[in-house]
Write a structure and sequence with these properties.
This protein is an alpha/beta fold. It has helices at 67-78, 101-109, 181-194, 204-207; strands at residues 3-12, 22-28, 62-64, 87-91, 113-118, 130-133, 148-153, 170-175, 199-200. Helix 1 packs parallel to helix 2.
Length: 211
């Protein structure tokens, strides 16, 4: 199987449990909730996405013929640090449109711990090391277990309480950014104070100007 990738970059994980951990981000092209084109945003299921996942023209991006080629590319971007197990964060777009067991295995064989950030509308390969699910209003949630559930807040029609019975170890609320960032941040903080099951997640990579 070939893989279409927008970019492969080494940066710092800015969200959730692994905040502050160096990582290689493998950003796949394509999503099942939005085309990635601004002209289609108002008709998209997810209208607040702030990520460029259209095309393969980002740093390290391209069309990879097979899992080995993509894993080798990720390894080159990571470099020669042998003091910690490298982390590959597979994201998008929606990574589970492309990520499969052979690619997870190839990344693991290259030394990576493999994490995914997904909207949860598709099931994950059984060999993924770390699963972060970010549900979206209007989309069926199929992936109901993992390590982190990270809900962008607020979303009309999605009450955080409806997810608390699911099999996740960590529950995060993350303020929706945009025209009402300040208001949404205050709402998120207030909810976490009133519901201690939830922890506040901020996009610290954006605060630091990191990719």
């Amino acid at each position: 199987m070939s893989y279409a990738v927008k970019e492969i970059v080494r940066t710092i994980q800015g969200e959730g449990v692994y905040t502050g951990r160096p990582a290689v981000f493998v950003r796949f092209t394509g999503c099942n909730l939005w085309s990635g084109r601004e002209t289609d945003r108002q008709a998209a299921i997810c209208q607040f996405c702030d990520t460029d996942f259209l095309g393969t023209d980002g740093p390290g991006g391209g069309q990879f013929r097979n899992a080995s080629d993509l894993a080798e590319a990720a390894q080159r971007v990571w470099g020669g640090d042998n003091f910690t197990r490298p982390l590959a964060v597979c994201t998008g777009g929606e990574p589970l449109l492309q990520l499969d067991e052979p690619l997870v295995a190839a990344l693991q064989n290259a030394g990576f711990e493999v994490a995914i950030e997904t909207n949860g509308t598709r099931l994950a390969p059984a060999n993924v090391d770390w699963i972060c699910v970010s549900p979206k209003a209007g989309a069926e949630l199929r992936l109901k277990r993992g390590n982190e559930l990270k809900l962008v807040y607020p979303q009309a029609g999605l009450d955080p309480g409806q997810f608390e019975s699911l099999a996740f170890d960590w529950f995060f609320l993350q303020p929706m950014t945009g025209e009402q960032t300040e208001r949404n941040t205050q709402l998120t903080e207030n909810y976490c104070r009133a519901h201690p099951r939830w922890q506040l997640s901020m996009q610290t990579h954006k605060l630091l100007g990191l990719p």
